[in-house]
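Supplementary Methods. Inverse-folding protocol.

Structures were first reduced to a discrete structure-token string of length 106. This string, shown here, constituted the complete conditioning input.
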């Protein structure tokens, strides 16, 4: 069993449509949490010494997405992602940059 709850043929392309859809759903869940995070991150300003709440939040969200996606890959395929797979996951996360910025600004 994998994270998606189905048996995966491990010979398929790692970023299969099924796995990509799972990652997209996961990313949308993280994006949905941005309003709550916007309220919490300014509290860390003194300890973490950042100047821009939005830049700090943006970096945290992107890092959370990448970490979550790479963890999902490892749990699904029972191995670490290779360089090409890391790039593909990074490109998927990058495609959400405009939406992340929009949610942070709203």
């Amino acid at each position: 069993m994998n994270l998606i709850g189905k048996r995966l043929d491990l010979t398929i392309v790692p970023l299969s449509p099924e796995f990509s859809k799972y990652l997209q759903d996961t990313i949308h869940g993280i994006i949905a949490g941005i309003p709550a995070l916007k309220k919490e991150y300014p509290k860390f300003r003194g300890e973490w010494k950042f100047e821009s709440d939005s830049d700090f939040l943006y970096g945290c969200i992107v890092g959370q997405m990448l970490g979550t996606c790479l963890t999902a890959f490892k749990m699904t395929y029972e191995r670490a992602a290779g360089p090409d797979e890391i790039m593909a996951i990074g490109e998927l996360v990058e495609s959400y940059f405009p939406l992340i910025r929009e949610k942070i600004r709203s």
